[in-house]
Amino acid sequence: IYTRKAINEDGDTEITFTIKGFADNEIIKELQKGTLYRFKASEVKSQRTTQQNRLMWALLEEIAERDNGNLYQSQDVWDVYVEALERAQAKFEIVDISANAYPMLKEHYRAIQILNTIDFDGNVTYRCKIFYGSSKLDVKEMAKLLDIVIIMAQERGIPITTNDYE
Questions:
Q1: Of 85, 83, 79, 93, whose CA–CA distance to 142 is shortest?
Q2: Residue range 55-79: average pLDDT?
Q3: For the whole prediction, is pTM greater than 0.85?
Q4: CA dihedral defined by 163, 148, 132, 74, rounded to 10 degrees?
Q5: Collapsing DSSP states into helix, strand and coil, what is residue 134?
Q6: Handedness of CA 47, 1, 157, 92 (dihedral sign)
Q7: Contact at 8 Å (CB) between 56 and 164?
Q8: Helix residue spans in 127-166 (DSSP H)
Q9: Where are the alpha helices (DSSP H) in the chain?
Q10: Helix (H) and strand (E) counts in the chain
């Protein structure tokens, strides 16, 4: 992500890019100050790639598998997906729905978080946060979601290699 540009004391332009999830990358570690490097920068304009999607879901599955070995944090892949959407501050809607209609809602929207339960004289209603799924995200939103999923994987000690990004 392009962060900023500045003119240094020699009158040269310095450009800063932020690259998330690469702090331990060997290529980054081997950069030498004062060495001339060549790279090509172009704006990301296309929709999310199938490769991004495959990577995201593979990592979500690995995170869920890792969490299922943890008695305090057992989750399925959809729980992990909702956690990632929440952490990425993805778009959502809030709806109130009767407990009887909740299974139907769940059939149509998988990324749902029940915020609270309301009981009016035995009529139970759920207040739900329904997330727009990754298929509805633009490139920037998808990149942020993927960054969050990568961070979640790293938090759980799941190794990420540069081959995952190629």
A1: 85
A2: 80
A3: no
A4: 100
A5: helix
A6: negative
A7: no
A8: 139-155
A9: 26-29, 50-68, 77-87, 102-108, 139-155
A10: 5, 5
